[in-house]
Write a structure and sequence with these properties.
By secondary structure, the chain is an alpha+beta fold. Helices cover 15% and strands 25% of the residues. A hairpin with a 7-residue loop joins β3 (35-36) and β4 (44-47).
């Protein structure tokens, strides 16, 4: 996913953030203790306590998923956005190859169909 919200723009110092959505039950922190940083609200953004890099996000109301920053993964080159969110806040020149665009964040009930479509294409 590419998120164009102004919060992600500020936290990345870029036009958007890139993340990969994973089921929470398949996600495990193996070393260190991340700290909450960035925007302090009901959506929780976790950072490395040592270098303060933004690692992952637990979206409000979606405890079954975790958004891992795609650039934190070894194979970041293989990630291209399938979904882009908060397009109503995007910078006019910022373009992605996302298949689906949402003015805000998609509703939690839309994720099963999006995940299914993504799995079929990949």
């Amino acid at each position: 996913m590419a998120c164009h919200c102004t919060g992600c723009q500020r936290m990345t110092a870029s036009a958007f953030s890139l993340s990969a959505l994973y089921p929470s039950n398949g996600f495990k922190i193996t070393l260190g203790e991340p700290v909450i940083g960035g925007l302090h609200g009901t959506t929780r953004h976790y950072f490395c306590a040592y270098c303060m890099s933004w690692l992952f996000t637990r979206p409000e109301g979606m405890d079954e998923f975790v958004n891992v920053r795609a650039t934190m993964l070894d194979d970041a080159q293989s990630f291209s956005p399938f979904v882009e969110t908060y397009t109503d806040e995007k910078l006019s020149w910022a373009m992605t190859s996302a298949v689906h665009s949402f003015k805000k964040f998609p509703s939690p009930d839309s994720f099963p169909a999006l995940l299914s479509e993504f799995a079929e294409q990949h």
